[in-house]
């Protein structure tokens, strides 16, 4: 059985960003042809994308969950289960972009790929520039200038990345997933970094109506967020201001 920790350790590698789009996104590459996989991986990493190549072709869904990517490049012809099967499996848990890559060039295969949940189809042998353009386009549609909310889908302060699409926070090779409420709390503090956010404002931002929420609920959620931040090396970054609220102090090293 695949150990998730093994995938997490290899998958969450943070590279330097080289632009608003490149360098912030993780690509899950599911391709058993070493030559093609290496070509794609090298080109993606040249633009500072974070690339994790599948290792266990019988456990693609498990690796997907462990790595928590922003986009999948998925071959059709794979050992045991084909790409259509894994595309359907991923679609049961995620709406992220999936690009099918295959030597099958007839229209029926392309139709089948789309019907199984893929967003686009790249035919082998492919033009590398065209493949990269399709990947960038899919990322723009989902997270960038064409997406609802635009670049606000990813919030970054001093090397800490908050991904609204996945409710994750990443810092120095480590990432952790937050509950929707925890993520809402943390993103509100990040958006007001260095400033005190009142308890009332936090309650309104996360629960919309303070009448039906016990004030202790906020305290409990702040405690949970602090513990999760400590797990990735962010310690004492949320200060309690008695009688006022909370403040995020971005004092960590980038």
Descriptive account of the structure:
By secondary structure, the protein is of the alpha/beta class. The chain has 2 domains: 4-147, Rossmann fold; 152-248, Arc Repressor Mutant, subunit A. It is built from 9 helices and 12 strands. It has helices spanning 4-11, 34-46, 60-67, 83-91, 107-115, 128-143, 180-191, 199-207, 215-231, and strands at 26-30, 50-53, 71-75, 98-102, 120-123, 154-157, 160-163, 168-171, 174-177, 196-198, 238-241, 245-248. The longest helix has 17 residues, at 215-231. The two termini are 36 Å apart. Mean pLDDT is 81; it is low at 1-23 and 145-152.
SSE map:
Elements (H helix, E strand, L loop, with lengths): L3 H8 L14 E5 L3 H13 L3 E4 L6 H8 L3 E5 L7 H9 L6 E5 L4 H9 L4 E4 L4 H16 L10 E4 L2 E4 L4 E4 L2 E4 L2 H12 L4 E3 H9 L7 H17 L6 E4 L3 E4 L6
Helix pairs in contact: 1-3, 7-8, 7-9
Query: Based on helices, strands and strand pairing, what is the structural class?
Result: alpha/beta
Main β-sheet, spatial strand arrangement: 2-1-3-4-5
Task: Give the ordered list of helices and strands.
Answer: HEHEHEHEHEHEEEEHEHHEE
Major sheet summary line: 5 strands, parallel
Task: Report the principal-axis shape.
Answer: elongated
Integer tally of domains: 2
Question: Gyration radius, to the nearest Å?
Answer: 20 Å
Measure the end-to-end span: 36 Å
| CATH superfamily caption of the largest domain | Response regulator
CATH topology of the largest domain: Rossmann fold
Whole-number mean pLDDT = 81
Low-confidence stretches: 1-23, 145-152
CATH class of the largest domain: Alpha Beta
Second-tier CATH architecture of the largest domain = 3-Layer(aba) Sandwich
Number of helices: 9
């Amino acid at each position: 059985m695949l150990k998730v920790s093994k995938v997490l350790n290899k998958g969450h590698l943070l590279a330097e960003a080289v632009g608003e789009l490149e360098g912030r996104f993780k690509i899950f590459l599911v391709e058993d042809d070493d030559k093609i996989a290496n070509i794609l991986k090298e080109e993606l990493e040249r633009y500072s994308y974070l690339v994790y190549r599948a290792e266990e072709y019988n456990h693609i869904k498990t690796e997907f969950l462990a790595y928590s990517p922003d986009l999948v490049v998925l071959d059709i012809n794979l050992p045991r289960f084909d790409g259509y099967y894994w595309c359907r499996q991923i679609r049961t848990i995620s709406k992220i972009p999936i690009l099918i890559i295959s030597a099958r060039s007839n229209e029926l295969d392309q139709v089948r790929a789309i019907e199984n949940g893929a967003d686009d189809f790249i035919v082998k042998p492919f033009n590398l520039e065209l493949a990269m353009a399709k990947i960038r386009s899919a990322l723009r549609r989902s997270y960038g200038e064409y997406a609802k909310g635009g670049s606000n889908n990813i919030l970054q302060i001093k090397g800490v990345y908050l991904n609204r699409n996945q409710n994750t926070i990443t810092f120095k090779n480590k990432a952790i997933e937050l509950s929707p409420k925890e993520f809402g709390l943390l993103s509100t503090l990040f958006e007001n970094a260095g400033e005190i956010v009142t308890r009332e404002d936090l309650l309104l931002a996360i629960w919309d109506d303070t009448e039906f929420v016990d004030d202790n609920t906020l305290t409990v959620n702040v405690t949970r967020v602090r513990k999760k931040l400590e797990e990735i090396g962010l310690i004492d970054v949320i200060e309690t201001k008695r009688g006022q609220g909370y403040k995020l102090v971005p004092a960590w090293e980038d």
